[in-house]
């Protein structure tokens, strides 16, 4: 009987300790990633537009409402791209594409997979194109995500992440709309995260 009571007492202590550790875990997680941007380059204009692929830096800040639900703000610096028409370079532009996603983090032993969905806003700037050719400076679209955090040590994670972001802009020439250019990139990232 005493052994049973002792076992129950130990189990209760361990359970309450684990629950306390979970409650004490900070709701903030910051990740730094290197992300490869691979553009879909879907163009409905007669120009055959495309932008170059590149690897960019990315920082995101996540806030956990509980152990499964989090919101993530994804940030980078304005990225310069070369715009081509029919395979020939015709100019350059910069884009700043912050995204805000709501995530669900699954309970799994040894690693923490998650999925996310939200909205992307892209601002185009420093647009340098041939005379008469222009693009809309603003784009709103969906953003989808799947990723995993792998614990390396207490509060430090290795992160792998794949996102599909919907970015498009109307293209005009001489004030007349030629069509829509969809960048719609897939972004594959790897980085480190810190829970604090």
TrEMBL record:
Q: Which residues form the signal peptide?
A: 1-21
The GO cellular component terms are: cell outer membrane
Entry superkingdom? Bacteria
Give compartment(s): Cell outer membrane
Could you tell me which Gene3D superfamilies the record lists for this protein?
A: 2.40.160.20
* GO biological process assignments: transmembrane transport
Q: What is its main location?
A: membrane
Sorted keywords for this record are: Signal
- A Pfam family of the record is OmpW
> Any idea what this protein is called?
OmpW family protein
Q: Which organism is it from?
A: Acidovorax delafieldii 2AN
């Amino acid at each position: 009987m005493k052994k049973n009571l002792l076992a129950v007492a130990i189990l209760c202590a361990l359970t309450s300790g684990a629950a306390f550790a979970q409650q004490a875990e900070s709701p903030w997680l910051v990740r730094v990633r290197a992300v490869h941007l691979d553009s879909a380059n879907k163009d409905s204009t007669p120009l055959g537009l495309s932008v170059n692929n590149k690897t960019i830096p990315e920082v995101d800040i996540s806030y956990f409402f509980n152990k499964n639900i989090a919101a993530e703000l994804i940030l980078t610096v304005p990225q310069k791209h070369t715009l081509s028409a029919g395979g020939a370079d015709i100019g350059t532009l910069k884009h700043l594409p912050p995204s805000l996603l709501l995530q669900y983090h699954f309970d799994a032993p040894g690693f923490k997979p998650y999925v996310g969905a939200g909205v992307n806003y892209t601002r185009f700037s420093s647009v340098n194109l041939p005379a008469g050719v222009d693009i809309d400076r603003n784009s709103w679209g969906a953003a989808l995500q799947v990723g995993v955090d792998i614990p390396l040590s207490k509060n430090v994670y290795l992160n792998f992440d794949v996102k599909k972001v919907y970015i498009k802009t109307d293209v005009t020439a001489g004030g007349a709309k030629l069509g829509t250019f969809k960048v719609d990139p897939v972004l594959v990232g790897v980085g480190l995260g810190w829970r604090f």
